[in-house]
Automatic annotation (TrEMBL):
<keyword id="KW-0378">Hydrolase</keyword>
<protein>
    <recommendedName>
        <fullName>S-acyl fatty acid synthase thioesterase, medium chain</fullName>
        <ecNumber>3.1.2.14</ecNumber>
    </recommendedName>
</protein>
<keyword id="KW-0276">Fatty acid metabolism</keyword>
<dbReference type="GO" id="GO:0051792">
    <property type="term" value="P:medium-chain fatty acid biosynthetic process"/>
</dbReference>
<keyword id="KW-0443">Lipid metabolism</keyword>
<dbReference type="InterPro" id="IPR029058">
    <property type="entry name" value="AB_hydrolase_fold"/>
</dbReference>
<dbReference type="GO" id="GO:0016297">
    <property type="term" value="F:fatty acyl-[ACP] hydrolase activity"/>
</dbReference>
<keyword id="KW-0275">Fatty acid biosynthesis</keyword>
<dbReference type="InterPro" id="IPR012223">
    <property type="entry name" value="TEII"/>
</dbReference>
<feature type="domain" description="Thioesterase">
    <location>
        <begin position="27"/>
        <end position="251"/>
    </location>
</feature>
<dbReference type="InterPro" id="IPR001031">
    <property type="entry name" value="Thioesterase"/>
</dbReference>
<dbReference type="Pfam" id="PF00975">
    <property type="entry name" value="Thioesterase"/>
</dbReference>
<comment type="similarity">
    <text>Belongs to the thioesterase family.</text>
</comment>
<keyword id="KW-0444">Lipid biosynthesis</keyword>
Amino acid sequence: VLLSWRFFLGMEKVIACAQKKPDALCRLICFPWAGGGTTELAQWSKLFSNSIEVLCVRFPGRETRLNEPFMKDMTSMVNEVTSVLLKELQEKPFAFFGHSFGSYLSFAVALHLKEKYGLEPVHLFVSSAHAPSSEAVTHLKDISIANASDEELLAYIQMLGGTPELLPNEDLRKEMLLTFREDSRVFRTFCFEKAEMDIPLSCDITCFSGSDDKPHDLRAWQEVTSGDTSFYELPGGHFYLLEPSNGIFLTKHITRCIEKAGL
């Protein structure tokens, strides 16, 4: 009993689920962006039918995990997500959706699950993220966010289309900047060496991007799977997915892809 209670606490701590759907055929695990929380993606639950249950990963250092230390590297994050979700992922089919930083984390978790447990998502949805083997990822890692001043960081987030002006409260702004800074530090530890492995995944991959965002190197996503890869551009910038009309398109499209997987 103690073990299951401890597991439950871990699950509640790391995973946000706005709407439990015990009869769902598939779970969609969502991975937020750097500096992000679970609020927006967990709310997608309302847009899906009862056949898809939405779970959103909550990173340490924010929301109900505010007092926990931030993770130091991608491997630690992958291990935590895997250990907490493994039972769920073994009992019914699942798909992953990640936005920006969350795309890289979802891909890293998918690789780990495949290598260690022989488990794989039925579909991987990535959003606003370069292909893992792209030179652009190396360039992104070189942007020295860790040493940037708060003003430089605010300007960078605003350029991405984030809205720090909605945070008039100085404490909230500082908290958001710290969270973004720490997640960016984790991103710098992300590593994928394509030369070291054959095609690692076999699931279909869909890449979404915003038409006004900086262009992403998406094509090479097709090199990491033997499944189909498709690409969709939606109106908006880096955070195009927060537009209600885009949210509706995404959830309908994700539903279609999951149904096509023939669960």
